[in-house]
Structure formats: structure tokens, C-alpha cells
């Protein structure tokens, strides 16, 4: 899988803005060549699926709750996501880890719930600034992967994409350098190889997220082993997002 472009709207855009976005955006990109996904707030999932219609653009959720059903006021299950037409979901986004104190063990359960309902998973991992400056990036990546993937079979990883998102680069305007991203994607591949095997490590797509913009995407697209991007702030404008998809996929074609 190459040319992956995911837009994470976070808690932004109104219903009517999402409607305008989708109606305009879908005519601006080629979703037969690129793997594109829009990660919208829960309440917009059903409408997003309807508006995307017959395109290949994926309807994405930004989170899921880890239990099947029950007394969990305010939460949304994988089954409910499926009923809304969700194709793919983010798990372990750094904002969930930092602001909502999500643990790796919960992330592991969320992945299992999503897989049960045949929803693809984007597992987000990454180190904080402090962890990097202490030289602990490798350790952190290894722990996040090992605990998130605990008990998952090799074939289940076919429905997973790993997003390397250094916490210090998200929404800060400070993106990681190509060298840093290449190094961490190597750590991710090596960890998957150690936990599973080489074939699995080679086929699992790794994408990058953290202050990706129309300005820096061309340079970032040159990174070996990075199959695409998870874009927050710069994806909120459909022209920007379409420009990023089109420019970057031109660069990486062939
Ligand atoms: P950003 O967010 O592009 O605004 O840094 C990326 C993300 O949170 O996935």
C-alpha cells in the first residue's frame, strides 16, 4: 500500500462545513491511485459515509471504546462505528494518550474490538520531547508497539497501518527531520520483525504525522519506508489537503 493520505479533523468543522468539504474534495483527487481517509467526529460518520458515496475514500473514526457493550456513558463501541459505515479508525493518537490518559493495554483492547468488526486500524505511536532528549525513543516505540500488538496474530496486521507521530511535532509547526523519521520507521520495522517476522515487517505500512503542510510534504515524501501521511491542521482546508495528496503522489509515483 503506497500513497496513503489521512486527514484528521479532530474536534473541528461544523456539519455543514464537513458537507461542503466532502462535496468539493472528492472531485479534486484520484482515490483510485491514492488511499485517502477522512477521520471525522463520531456524529459526522454516517453523513460522511453517505456523502463519500461510491468513491474509494475511507470513512474514518478518531477513536473507539475498548469494551463490547455496557454501562459506559458517553462512549462509542466498535459495533456502533461499523453501523455508521466506518471503514478505519485511529487508535492511540497522542492527544488521547496525553489528554485522556489512554494506556497501551487499553489501546490493545481497542485494536481487538475494531478487528472483530473488520474495521482497519491506524495505530499511532511516538515519543515525547523529553523521551527523545533522554535518548529513549527506541525504548518508547518498542514498548508502545509490543503492548498494543499483544495477542494479535500475524494475519491481523494486514488490516493495520502504523502512524509515527512524534508528540512534540503534533500541531506545533515543528516537524521531524527526514533523518529522524527514517530512523524511527526503521525501529518500527525492526520491532515488528522481532515480534513477528520479516515478511510482516515489510508489508505493514508506516506513515508519518506531525505538522505536515503543503510546504514540507514534498521533502517528507522522499523518505524511504514512509508510505504516506496523517495530517491534522493542514487538512482542515480541502484545497490544501487535495494539493498535498496531488503534489506528493506525483512525487512518489513509480
Ligand atoms: P498536525 O496533526 O498535522 O496538526 O500536527 C497531526 C495529527 O495529530 O495527526
Helix content: 40-55%
Strand order of the largest sheet: 1-2-3-4-5-6-7-8
Mean pLDDT: 95
The first-to-last residue Cα distance is 13 Å
Question: How many beta-strand segments?
Answer: 8
Q: What portion of residues belong to β-strands? A: 15-25%
SS element count, helices: 11
The largest sheet, given as strand count, sense and whether it forms a barrel, is: 8 strands, parallel, barrel
Please write the string of helix (H) and strand (E) elements: EHEHEHEHHEHHEHHEHEH
Give the names of the bound compounds: 2-phosphoglycolic acid
Low-confidence stretches: none
Calculate Rg over CA atoms.
Answer: 17 Å
Q: Key features?
A:
8 strands; binds 2-phosphoglycolic acid; 254 residues
Explain what you see.
This protein has 254 residues and is α/β, with parallel strands linked by helices. The protein is built from 11 helices and 8 strands. The chain has an 8-stranded parallel beta barrel, surrounded by 5 helices. Helix 2 (45-52) links the parallel strand 2 (35-40) and strand 3. The longest helix is centred in the last third of the chain and has 18 residues, at 178-195. The protein is globular, with a radius of gyration of 17 Å. The two termini are 13 Å apart. The mean pLDDT is 95.
Q: TL;DR of this structure?
A:
This protein has 254 residues and is α/β, with parallel strands linked by helices. It has helices at residues 15-25, 45-52, 78-83, 94-99, 104-116, 129-133, 137-148, 178-195, 198-203, 217-220, 238-252, and strands at 4-8, 35-40, 58-61, 88-91, 120-125, 160-164, 206-209, 226-231.
